[in-house]
Specification:
It is built from 13 helices and eleven strands. The protein is an alpha/beta fold. The protein has a five-stranded parallel β-sheet with strand order 5-4-1-6-7, sandwiched between helices. Strands 9-10-8-11 form a four-stranded antiparallel β-sheet. Strands 2-3 form a two-stranded antiparallel ribbon.
Length: about 290
């Protein structure tokens, strides 16, 4: 198995955790599990960017009044106590720091527009290379389109991506778009997923793009890919093989990109040694380069 060039991580349950809701519910006279049940039932519009985080929490307060019998003041107090930033899982953060010496690390989180503030407060905005929020994408996991759109934002192909999530349904959904995906409900599972794919090796001097230095030139139009392959082959690149890279199920032609596979440059050096030149070529066709 080749080393991934992008690690895509879920946030909550993987890199961040929250204390239990039980003490808050006990203090405000709510049955255990009420806050999670009510908040998740109302979260859809907020996690897809149709309402703000504050509008969502106002809806939760309203439901605690109308559905759970709390007074408005007591409902407001309960939601205020429940509105926490959470805390970083330190052992997971340590893994992220080790992995960033080997590949890009990005977050893909079902989140509201509050996410940037939380990440800044926790210092996690400085610990990853990119953040993709469902509120910005307009679609949430486990919808396959959430993963397709995230990869577009990150300009990366599914074949070079490893995704880890503590929700098994999300992990299964990522596999449908061609991503190597692992259900990681706890720290040992996360560590094993990263270690088994070479992301925790002691060797940090491997050539970019894996040991072979291979790069993929990803273009959205077949004609552009074939033209680029001819141009590169004439200049001495190899193997310049063109193939389809699906960002969805195998029958979803609309979400297919075209990939030019490059292993060796015209000077017999690994293709990764000429990444800048290839990125310039990709830019002319509105494409991108990935490992």
């Amino acid at each position: 198995m080749s080393r991934p060039s992008l690690l895509l991580l879920d946030l909550d349950g993987v890199l961040r955790r929250f204390p239990p809701d039980g003490p808050i519910e006990d203090e405000h006279g709510l049955p255990r599990g009420t806050l999670a049940r009510v908040s998740f039932a109302l979260a859809g519009p907020a996690t897809t960017g149709r309402v703000t985080d504050e509008e969502w929490r106002a809806a939760v307060r309203g439901q605690l009044v109308s559905g759970e019998g709390l007074s408005p003041a007591r409902a407001a107090d309960a939601v205020a106590a429940w509105t926490r930033t959470g805390e970083v899982i330190p052992e997971a953060l340590d893994l992220v720091r080790r992995v960033r010496g080997r590949c890009r690390v990005a977050l893909l989180s079902n989140a509201t527009d509050r996410l940037p503030r939380d990440l800044a407060a926790l210092g996690l905005d400085r610990e990853v290379d990119a953040v993709v929020s469902s509120a910005r994408l307009g679609v949430a996991k486990p919808a396959p389109d959430a993963f397709r759109r995230a990869l577009r934002v990150l300009q990366h192909s599914p074949s070079g991506t490893l995704f880890c999530d503590d929700n098994e349904e999300n992990a299964r959904a990522a596999r449908t778009v061609g991503i190597d995906s692992v259900h990681t409900p706890d720290f040992p599972a996360l560590r094993e997923a990263l270690s088994s794919r070479g992301l925790l090796d002691d060797d940090v001097t491997a050539a970019p793009g894996g040991a072979s230095g291979r790069l993929l030139l990803v273009l959205h139009d077949r004609g552009d890919a074939e033209e680029a392959a001819r141009e590169l082959a004439a200049a001495g690149w190899s193997p310049c093989a063109v193939h389809k890279d699906l960002l969805a199920g195998e029958d979803d032609v609309e979400d297919a990109d075209w990939v030019v596979e490059l292993t060796t440059g015209p000077d017999d050096q690994p293709a990764s040694a000429h990444r800048g030149l290839l990125e310039e070529l990709a830019g002319r066709h509105d494409g991108f380069v990935t490992d």
